[in-house]
Amino acid sequence: MTNAPMQVNALIVDATDPERLAAFWSELLGRPIVGRMGPYVWLRRENGLGLGFQKTEDPKPGKNRMHIDITSPDPASEQQRVETLGGCRLEQYDDGGFLVMADPEGNEFCIIPDGAFDLDDEGRASYLD
Predict the structure, then answer these.
(1) pTM of the model
(2) Tens of pLDDT, residues 12-24
(3) 72-127 per-position pLDDT tens digit
């Protein structure tokens, strides 16, 4: 047994249509699809992190328990591009001040600024103001 810390190798997203979801994320992140194996579709690994989409018959049951934050120099300008690719803005989270979007299967993600931004005492952001 080793005492070395474990590392996150990949994030795997369940998908009823992994090809469609991989295409969405590939375009959004600029990571090409590089492999298919069994029920998985894989995007190019970057910074040591893999991103894969696994076929499942079960639709997304509710709110994500974990979500991805992606960065942009101008988060507000990315909303239209996400929507053009098949995603949508989740306005029910607007009170938190974050730009919360969903991919075509409803998986939530935030688009945050590249640099630092402030949060108030309740964890609300203000970078969209």
Answers:
(1) 0.91
(2) 999 999 999 999 9
(3) 999 999 999 999 999 999 999 999 999 999 999 999 999 999 999 999 999 999 99
Domains observed in the chain: 1-57 (3.30.720.120), 67-129 (3.10.180.10)
- Nearest 5°: CA angle at 8, between 75 and 10? 70
CA dist 85 to 8, 22, 23, 27, 107, Å? 28, 11, 9, 8, 14
Farthest-apart Cα atoms in the chain, separation: 51
20 Ramachandran zone, left/alpha/beta (phi>0; psi -120 to 50):
alpha
Of 88, 93, 98, 90, nearest to 120 (Cα)? Answer: 98
Q: Which helix (H) or strand (E) holds 99?
A: strand 99-102
